[in-house]
Predict the structure.
Amino acid sequence: MKTPDRPISSETAYHNKIFLDSNDGRPLRILAEYLEPLYRFQREGIHDTIVFFGSARMKEDGPLGRYYKDARLLARLLTEWSSDLAGSKRFVICSGGGGGIMEAANRGAMDAGGVTIGLNIGLPHEQRPNPYVTPSLLFEFHYFFMRKLWFTHLARALIVFPGGFGTLDELMDMLTLAQTQKLDRDILILLYGSEYWKEVINFDSLVKHRMIDTKDLNLIHRVDDVQAAFELLKNRLPKEKEAVCPAIAKAKFSKC
């Protein structure tokens, strides 16, 4: 009888790279993308984040460079403000770790002398880690769904700048979680650039065709300048540190 074609190694199973890279090892790779970030966030004392989404294609000196500059300034103001709050490392700026708006957000946080998170993912084009992420808080994901989980776990606010498929995907994911009350807390969702978002997504038509309720529009706040966004966030975010999500405190997946 032919012996099944499986990796043969005298190494301890968790040191066996052939097995870990195989189809049979996939559940362990998925779990590692949950537990390894959990370990690092606990070690760094990260309790909550403000997440920036937006196009990786925007350049500071490009035709839409104002969005890059606004994202950088807003991230700097938020980092300076949060540094004065009780508790360490509150409302840490978090991005997808790549270029464009992601780079601008991490850069702004670094301008203010704060730590900043990059949840990077390996892609054929565009996505390379930007140099402004705090090295100990730069993560490299393979699975999109595990990366999304970490965007959501610690977020207290989401600021969505103009972007493409990836930005729309992340925005809709967060809106769906908020609408279906799968989050144990309110998350402020800001759409930055009213004209862009009005043209790209017709939320009023979704209400008109009864695809969403009118009250669902309350999940979204539209802003057009840095100061308006900053004031909204500063006034609405909880100043006192909330109880840490059980998923962070006990490594247990829950509603949050």
Observations:
- The chain has a mean pLDDT of 89.
- The domain at 14-249 is CATH 3.40.50.450 (Rossmann fold).
- DSSP finds ten helices and seven strands in the chain.
- The longest strand covers residues 116-121.
